[in-house]
Amino acid sequence: MAKAKKIKTSGGDYAFNRQARHRYELRDALECGIVLAGTEVKALRTVGAQMGDSYVDVRNDELWLHNLRIEPYGPASLNNHQPDRPRKLLAHRREIDRMLGQTKRDGLTVVPVRIYPKGRTIKVEVALARGKNVADKRQDMKERDTRREMERALRERNR
Asked: What is the pLDDT of residues 60-74, one digit of tens each?
């Protein structure tokens, strides 16, 4: 039996939303900062985070990331953070307004895609997305299968 392959992410990602590409058609991406406590940063760097059902909400013209689970940092027993608290995302006002306008006008949603380090800071990539229906998901699976078969045939031919 063949060994299962992991989805490729860029080298230093702390978390990656695997379901985002399956559930949504991703459009425009935006890089945001995130407000974290000290123990959250240490926990992210050691064990990462879980982005399973995380989503971005706009409250009071600010972006908030919900359902991102960062496990408590072991050595900081008393001064630890809450694992599931909402976290504020940092972006320019015009970017927030543009995203908010597109969500209201086009019926799009804002989905977090990945969390990664950039220099000494931690960034969150969010994307405007439109939900896929069952037919779209089947079409994507069909395209992926045909691409795999073409690559396999090319490999066989080049042997």
From this structure: 889 999 999 888 887
> What Å distances lie between residue 7 and 16, 39, 92, 142, CA to CA?
10, 28, 31, 18
Task: Provide mean pLDDT across the span 71-100.
Answer: 86
CA–CA gap between residue 23 and residue 151 (Å, rounded): 25
Query: What stretches of the chain adopt beta strand conformation (E)?
Result: 15-16, 24-34, 55-59, 62-66, 87-90, 109-118, 121-131
CATH superfamily of domain region 15-132: Small protein B (2.40.280.10)
Q: Output the CA angle 67-32-108, nearest 5 degrees.
A: 65
pLDDT of residue 111: 92
Query: What's CA 126's distance to the chain center, in Å?
Result: 6
- The alpha carbon dihedral of 35, 37, 38, 41 has a sign of negative
Per-residue burial over 44-60, b if 16 or more Cβ lie within 10 Å, else e, is beeebbbbeebbbebee
Quick check: helix, strand or coil at residue 97?
A: helix
Rg for the chain (alpha carbons), in Å? 19
